[in-house]
Amino acid sequence: AFEQMAQQLKEHEQLQHLLAYRDALTGLRNTNSYWAWITDFDKEIEMGEINFGVLVFDINYLKETNDRYGHDVGNKLIVSAARVISDTFKRSPVFRIGGDEFLVILQNRDLEDLEVLLKKFDEECVNAQVETDKENIPVSIAKGFARYDFRSDSNFIDVFNRADDAMYENKREMKGLK
């Protein structure tokens, strides 16, 4: 009975961790997990040598999709976008940090292979669609990248802000609003 209770307690702890650090819709790491990673990265930045990059993603036309087709289809668009991002950057931590916003922390091989991965990502986006009763909706995702620079970045948020600015510039270009 004691072993069974210990096993149930362990399973309960694993479930609590999953609920606390995973996004329920996409299965990706959530904002709680993101903030824990940021704390760790800031400690590494303070200690010295670290090499990483941040990719920020934002789904285009999610509000329009929700308004036209309903939130169920909007959720399918979010899940499809999450799949494209996580399949492309499968060796890196991927977070859903907002309703239609995602973030990837690139290190090691994924950071070295960034150009190849971004090309693959763009190709996957062209092929990704969400089916509805009326038509297929393309999965359109804006992206922005920034690499940590020890000369100008004092913390993780500095890198994030540059990646976020680059993503919004890409979004304007994609929507023809330049």
Short description:
This protein is an alpha+beta fold and 178 residues long. Helices cover 57% and strands 16% of the residues. The chain has helices at 2-21, 31-47, 62-69, 71-88, 108-112, 114-127, 156-174; strands at residues 53-59, 94-96, 101-106, 129-131, 136-138, 141-147.
Keywords:
178 residues; 6 strands; alpha+beta; globular; four-stranded antiparallel beta sheet; two-stranded antiparallel ribbon
Descriptive report:
The protein has 178 residues and is an alpha+beta fold. The chain is 57% helix and 16% strand. The protein is built from 7 helices and 6 strands, in the order ααβααββααβββα. The strands form 2 sheets. The chain has a 4-stranded antiparallel sheet, with helices on both faces. It has a two-stranded antiparallel sheet with strand order 4-5. The model has no long low-confidence stretch (mean pLDDT 90).
Strand coverage percent:
15-25%
Largest sheet: 4 strands, antiparallel
Overall form = globular
What is the string of helix and strand elements? HHEHHEEHHEEEH
Quaternary state, please? single chain
Strand arrangement within the widest β-sheet reads: 2-3-1-6
Average pLDDT score: 90
Tally of alpha and pi helices = 7
Number of strands: 6
